[in-house]
Amino acid sequence: MINAAGICFHKAAKVYWFDPAGLELRRGEKVIVETASGQEMAEVKIPLTEVSEEGLSLPLKPVLRRANPEDQRKVNENKLKEQQAFRTGLEKIRQFELPMKLIFVECAFDRSRMVFHFSAENRVDFRELAKELARTLHCRVELHQIGVRDETKLIGGLGTCGKELCCATFLTEFEPVGIKMAKEQDLSLNPQKISGVCGRLMCCLAFEYACYKEAKQRLPRVGSKVTTFRGVGKVMEIDVPKEELVIELEEGGRVRIKATEVKPAEGCEACPRHKESANDAD
User: Fold this and answer.
1) What's the rounded Cα separation, in Å, for the pair 221 and 98?
2) How many structural domains is the chain composed of?
3) pLDDT tens digits, one per residue of 219-249
4) Widest distance between CA atoms in the chain
5) Does 211 reside within a domain?
6) Over 90: is that where the pLDDT of 81 sits?
7) Do residues 160 and 191 share a domain?
């Protein structure tokens, strides 16, 4: 175990571990750190803590100092340079007639390089564009093609829930999201209802997937027969969050009941998982 501080370079971005170099850092502080690409300003997300050396690239890069007013002034000037470089980038893209969409320009803290983030449907040969931008801006230029999910994360916006996008507020990494997650949660498979503003499946489909999957392993399946206090019936609906069942009784009528208050009907083979959980309870 080693002492390290968790540092983040952008909002809702991945946390990297740095050597605090004896500094007593607090969450939210701005600091200047040494990276492989030079000095950068970043924010402390996790104060001094012990972390496992496994998976870390040792020795850790150091935190050089707390950011001072001069550093903040320099960052503000860099933001103005980014805006100017963005306009220059748009002009040069039109000049070279390249099928790409410029999303964001990032200026290094020491102004030694600029990174142009763009999206495109296919791979783009931007070598001549990079040379022209470097000549115009008098610094090293990098062009980075990003996907639609990264584009949405950078731009931000509101989701169908009315809140800020998860990717732009707290998700540090994208996890695989599949249609199976929507099916497991009994959601509509209409693409318009389960897709985010990026056009891909919503990241939030993964939030409760594990809970639904675990719960459905304990609950009887739709169509299985169970015994209730009102007699034998067939499971018609399952409310997973509340763990309630809608039962259609053989004697007529329906009843809504907690899953813990039913038992598998004699001879029912449609819900072996429910039988196992019931036997364990007995």
Assistant:
1) 54
2) 4
3) 888 888 888 888 888 888 888 888 888 888 8
4) 84
5) no
6) yes
7) yes
CATH of the domain at 102: 3.30.300
Shared domain for 87 and 124, answered yes or no, is yes
Lowest mean pLDDT among 40-44, 195-199, 255-259: 255-259
Strand order in the sheet with 225-228: 254-258, 244-249, 231-239, 225-228, 263-264
Residues 139, 104 share a domain: yes
Tell me how far apart the terminal alpha carbons of the chain are, to the nearest angstrom. Answer: 46
User: Which range is least confidently modeled, 96-110, 115-129, 170-184, 240-254?
Assistant: 240-254
The model's pTM is 0.71
Q: Rounded distance, CA 131 to CA 144, Å?
A: 14
3-state secondary structure of 141: strand
Smallest Cα–Cα separation from 117: which of 82, 81, 143? 143
Query: Please, which residues have CB within 8 angstroms of residue 221's CB and are 6 or more apart in sequence?
Result: 235, 270, 271, 273, 274
Clarify whether residues 137 and 200 are in a common domain. Answer: no
Preceding omega of 59 cis (within 30 degrees of 0): yes
Q: How does DSSP classify residue 154? A: H
212 part of a folded domain: no
- Tokens representing 177? 């999201």
